[in-house]
Amino acid sequence: MTVNEKNVKRTELGRLDRLYLVEVVKGLGITGGHFFRNLFLHTAHLFGLMKDRPAAVTIQYPEERRPIPVGYRGRHRLLLREDGSPKCVACMMCPTICPAQCIHIRAGESPDPAIEKYPVSFDIVVDRCVMCGFCVEACPVDAIRMDTGIVEMAEYDRKDFVDGRDYMLSQKPSDEEKKKGPPERKPPNELDKKNDEH
Amino acid sequence: MPTIEIDGKIITVEPGLTVIQAADRLGIHIPRFCYHPGLSPAGSCRMCMVEIEKIPKLQTACTTPVVNGMVVRTDTEAVQDARRSILEYLLINHPIDCPICDKSGECLLQDYYTEYARYTSRFLETRWRKRKVFILGPTIVMDEERCVLCSRCVRFFEEVSGVRRLGIFQRGSEAYLSTYPGEVLEDLYCGNIVDICPVGALTDRDFRFNQRVWMLKRGHSICPFCARGCNIIVDFNEDSDIQVNDSRVYRFRPRFNTKVNDYWMCDTGRYGYKSLDAAERIREPLLREGKRLIPVGWDRIIKRAALRIRETLASHGPEGVGVLVHPTVACETALATRELFVEQLGIRNMSTGFPVDPSAFEDAILIRRDRAPNRRGLEMIGMVPKGEDVPAGQLAAGWATGRIKLLYVLGDDPARFHNPQGPSPIPAGEGILILQKSTAGPEDARARMVLPAAMPAEEDGTFVNFEGRVQHFDAALAPLGEALPACEILRRLGEALKVELHPECWRLGQETWAPSSSS
Hints:
The complex is a heterodimer of chains A (198) and B (519).
Chain A: H1 15-19, H2 21-46, E1 77-78, H3 93-97, E2 103-109, E3 117-125, H4 134-138, E4 144-145, E5 162-163, H5 165-170, H6 175-180, H7 190-196
Chain B: E1 3-6, E2 9-12, H1 19-26, E3 49-52, E4 59-60, E5 71-73, H2 77-90, H3 108-116, E6 134-135, E7 140-142, H4 152-161, E8 166-169, E9 176-179, H5 191-196, E10 202-204, E11 217-222, E12 231-236, E13 249-254, H6 267-270, E14 286-289, E15 292-295, H7 298-316, E16 321-325, H8 331-344, E17 349-351, H9 375-381, H10 392-401, E18 406-410, E19 432-437, E20 449-452, E21 461-464, E22 470-473, H11 486-497, H12 508-512
Parallel strand pairs in B: 1-5, 16-17, 16-18, 18-19, 19-20
Antiparallel strand pairs in B: 1-2, 3-4, 3-5, 6-7, 7-10, 8-9, 11-12, 12-13, 14-15, 14-20, 21-22
């Protein structure tokens, strides 16, 4: 086997370099420069000045947050119909596809024969979820989305990781998702549209 | 004997058979909706069109009888085209609500659409809307929009159940399936129309929305609710994450056996699946302490039972012990019982349960008056020692008068599953009552120990039906809770009693009773 070799010439240290002291002072200068610049900017920010210049590259979490890109998968939410009932028809496509088996649905008979089937309970065990988004892909009625922008998942109790139906129905899309507007759709089939009117 | 060729394969069949039946024998699946092997051909769906040489037009395979020298092709362009057209026609008014349809996953329309059709609808008119959730009777709910008018259910009631209960009314696109005006669909064999419905038009109100069919596992068993011994499929789900109401079993379905039940089963057996997960099931060994039965481990209860049997044998001899075997136990259990109690311990007071209730309902289709699955099997084994026949009544009398100090009861009372609140056939007695069974009953209040046994779907065994047909079955799923198969309980009891059992005594069943043509 041939190996591509490349000889790198090491920089020879000069006399001043070998003394170290000069280089140490230079380094302290850089660190100190950043320190005083940041100290000044942070103090200025406290008084509401120079807000347009960031004080440090560090994001000041949790006061500042990194913007979440559109399409980033966060905690799930369930969507509502226009009349306020859940869109979900409890078809069990999401528990079927879910690789983590974290979705538990109990189906029930809806009093409205046009809906027929609805979820009596819909639980997602979020700490088991692997955030793959397959449930969103599998849903035939666009009832589940992961666009809440909630990505920090920390709770004091294990049972708080179980998101119930009503909690997920009350969730709203994140601001970034709202700005983007509704997801792009294929133009509706003229025939489907016509049929749906009846 | 006509010899015909289907897709290049040659088969000789008896005259009178139709092309679709010959194709089924060759393993060639011709798509069908209205044809069902258990019913007369109707030729109404036109899905089974095939090309036959020397006949210019396509023919329906379900109504064309075989003729010697016939050459049939089921995969030509013309046949595919006909199938596509029929599917397009059937799907004009179909709601395509597969996500909420209970049949989804075992629906012929769904299967054939994915296999043959896959087109975009060309239909320009408005879709016909019909009744969605239309309750036909206490067990069946109908969706008119999904119905393809194959008339399988209509023919089922005419030809199998014997009473016309459904009909197709109106004509053309206005045709619909319904009961006769003012009638409610009630029949002892109603559940079968759900099985034979090729689409999701008829669904079972009991099974509805509980599970999706692809989540269920299938096991084979024998229905234990009457002497017919219908072959069944047990649909269950052992994954507690997707269970509903902590139930494991969701339905029983008939399994084809031309010698016993054909394609059918009665509703009593069908909804008998509930007994497997019933609240009355005994989940762990129970030992009496004072007035209560408290759950204990298997080791303790087996030791205690062995101790009591030994004590009674020492103080009163074999006459002091009685063994009652209900005809709900499998032949293997009966053989092991005989080995343990009769051959090894010398007990003579043994009987096989109680006589058949002469007032029980019976019909000429499937349901038998005898509600016990294995009475004939116990008779054939000869559970009662020859010449020393102890009728059940005598055993019960001996127990009631106190002559028998210890009574060991195996199996469930067959009447229990049909009438859970019914009286117990075991009279009150002073002695020690040990019950080995699966479901709680009124006699538990007097029992000293209750040993939880598996139900037939949870253990291997052999039943002999009323005609003497020997049917072996395997365990479909694991026993509920701590329950054990009956043979295993007897094995442990024998071990604790320190008696030498024939090492293979429960296997005798399989050797003596070779599996028959069940399945």
